[in-house]
Amino acid sequence: MDESEDVPKDFIKLKSEKLSVDEVSELVISPCCGAVSLFIGTTRNNFEGKKVIHLEYEAYTSMAETEIRKICRDVRQKWPSVKHIAVHHRLGVVPVTEASVIIAVSSPHRVESLEAVMYCINTLKASVPIWKKDSSWSLRAYTCAASRQCGPYYLSIAEQIQS
Questions:
Q1: How many Cβ atoms are within 10 Å of 61's Cβ, its own excluded?
Q2: Which residues in the chain land under pLDDT 50?
Q3: Amino acid 136: pLDDT
Q4: Each residue's pLDDT tens digit, 11-43
Q5: Strand (E) positions, the chain?
Q6: How far is residue 120 from each of residues 4, 68, 72, 152, 158, measured CA to CA in Å?
């Protein structure tokens, strides 16, 4: 690939099919980068001492994509050397051990890509309207990482589960 054609790109995808680590990591590879950092968030089999069979995700898709684009813009401001960013999030049912989210970032050096990946996942969980339903909860209630943006129903979920 001609290096001049290798312009910075963001790859954002919300999908119901199984996520592929290989596919996401290949999206961000660049001949001018010596680092590709990945975060893979998977469904674990427990939550607060309860057995989890699967997680289920829903999203306000257009708003979630817009918020993820903002995260990518922020990354590029904080770490100008970052080349490509990929954020893929699964929707629907995600069984134990399967990936719910994969984030990949390429940069010339490891520090920038590692810091950018951490920023991406932390900001995504705090601000993107993607809701997670845990199969272990008897109420089968939704929680929202971005509860401030998701309304009072989502703010009161923790109280409902405890009662």
A1: 12
A2: 1, 138-163
A3: 59
A4: 999 999 999 999 999 999 999 999 999 999 999
A5: 9-15, 35-42, 46-47, 50-51, 54-59, 84-90, 92-95, 99-107, 130-134, 142-144
A6: 26, 8, 8, 25, 25
Beta bridge partners of 151: none
Residue listed under structure tokens 């401030």: 148
Supply the angle between the helices 61-78 and 110-127 in degrees, to the nearest 10: 150
Are 42 and 99 contacting, i.e. CB atoms less than 8 angstroms apart?
Answer: yes
d(CA 55, CA 45): 10
Residue written as token pair 């306000």: 60
Query: Rounded to whole angstroms, how far apart are CA atoms 133 and 27?
Result: 29
Please provide residue 56's backbone torsions phi and psi, each rounded to the nearest 5 degrees.
-135, 130
pLDDT score at 111:
98
Q: What is the DSSP string of 76-116?
A: HHH-TT--EEEEEEE-EEEETTSEEEEEEEEESSHHHHHHH
Q: How far apart are CA 72 and CA 112, in angstroms?
A: 13
